[in-house]
Amino acid sequence: MRVGIIGAGWIATQHVATLRRLGGAEVVAVCDVDESRARELAGGAATYKDWRHLIDRETPDAVFVCVPPLAHREVAVAALEKGINVYLEKPIARGLEDARAIVDAAARSSSVCAVGYQWRAVEVLDDLRETLAGQEIGMQIGISFGPTKSRPWFLDRAQGGGNLLERASHTIDLERAIGGEVVAVKAAASRVLLAQSQGEHGDIEDAAALVLNFANGSLGTIQVAWLREGLPGKYSLDVLGSDSVLHLELDPDFALRGQSRGRSVEATSRQHPVERSVDRFLAAAREGNKNGVFCLPADAAGTLSVAVACEEALASGGTVKVTEHWR
Ligand SMILES: NC(=O)c1ccc[n+]([C@@H]2O[C@H](COP(=O)([O-])OP(=O)(O)OC[C@H]3O[C@@H](n4cnc5c(N)ncnc54)[C@H](O)[C@@H]3O)[C@@H](O)[C@H]2O)c1
C-alpha cells in the first residue's frame, strides 16, 4: 500500500515509525508547509509543501492526515472525494461544521476513514466489555495528567481547543465507547498555570474537571491536567459497575484489573493501541471495509460534540446539553 503523510510534526513521526514496524505499507511521500520537516521525515520519499500536489501527483492508496485540527477538513474531504483512504488524526476537527463536512464526505466516499482516537483500540477494552456484560455502569472516573509537547496551535484556544480537545477528548471518547451517548455536561477549570509559565503562555487552561451525564443515567468524570516536562503522568479509567470495580491503566501500560462478581479480573494488552489502530485501518483499506476501523468519523464527531459542549460549559459555568446526533 502506497501511503502519503500530510503534516510532518510530532504524531506523523510516530505514524511513520509504526508503519515501518508493521510493514506492508510504504511511505511514498511526505508533505509539510515547512518543507524541512517533510524532508527530515521522508527518508528518501518524495516531499511536498502543498498537500494538493501530493494527492494529485502521487495518487496514494492512503493518507495520514497529521495537520493541526483547523486544517483537517480541507485535506480529509479532498482525499475522500478522490477515493483515497484516510487515517485522520483526532480530534475530527476543531468545530462541528467541519466535522459535519468530514462525516458527509466519508459517507459519500467508497474509501475507508478512521479517526485516531487510539484508546478505542486498547485490547483489554474487550475484556472490560465482557466483564461488564449484564451489569449496569454507574460511574466512570477518567484521569489524564502529565507533560505533553507545547505546539503553537495547542496554546491558542481558537485553533486547538486547548487541553479539552487535545487531551481530555481522548478520555471523553473512551468513556463514550464504554458508556454510550452523553446528554449533558458541566466543566470547571483551574486558574493556576501548571505547565505554562507566567511569562509565556497561551489562552488555554492547564487543568480542568469535566462531568458527563450519559443517556443511560450513568455519570462520567474526567480530570485533565498539563504538567511540566519531567513530572510523572497518570492516564487511567476506573469503571464502577453494579457488581464490579474495574481499573483500566492507560499509557504506557494498557492493563485491566479489578473485581467483578466476586472474582478478580486481570488482563494485559500485547499490542500498543496506536499500532493496533493503524494496523486495523490498513486491513480495512485493503479490504475496502468502511466499517472495519476502531473509530469511525461519526464516533469522533460525537466525541467532538461533547468536547465542544464542555468548552461552552467552561465558559458559562452552567450545564450544557449535547444535542447533535451523528448516526
Ligand atoms: N492520537 C494522538 O495521541 C495524538 C497525539 C498528538 C497529536 N495528535 C493530533 O495530530 C494532529 C497533529 O498534531 P501534532 O502534535 O503532530 O502537531 P505538530 O504541530 O507537531 O505537527 C503538525 C504539522 O503540520 C504542519 N502543517 C500545518 N498546516 C499544514 C498544511 N495546511 N499542510 C501541510 N502541513 C501543515 C505543521 O507545519 C506541522 O509540522 C492534531 O490533530 C493532534 O490533535 C494526536
Short description:
This protein has helices at 10-22, 35-42, 51-58, 72-81, 96-108, 125-132, 152-155, 157-160, 162-179, 273-287, 297-316, and strands spanning 2-6, 26-31, 46-48, 62-65, 85-88, 113-115, 137-146, 182-189, 207-214, 219-226, 234-241, 244-250, 255-260, 263-268, 320-321. It is of the alpha/beta class.
Bound ligands, named by name, code or SMILES:
nicotinamide-adenine-dinucleotide
Distance between the termini: 30 Å
Portion in beta strands: 25-35%
Shape, per Cα inertia axes: globular
Kindly provide the name of the CATH class of the largest domain.
Alpha Beta
Main sheet: strands, sense, barrel: 9 strands, mixed
Q: Provide the low-confidence segments as ranges.
A: none
The SSE string, one letter per element, is EHEHEHEHEHEHEHHHEEEEEEEHHE
Strand order of the largest sheet: 14-13-12-11-7-10-9-8-15
CATH architecture of the largest domain: 2-Layer Sandwich
User: Can you tell me the CATH superfamily of the largest domain?
Assistant: Dihydrodipicolinate Reductase, domain 2
Reported by name, the CATH topology of the largest domain is Dihydrodipicolinate Reductase, domain 2
Rounded average pLDDT: 97
* Helix content, binned percent: 25-40%
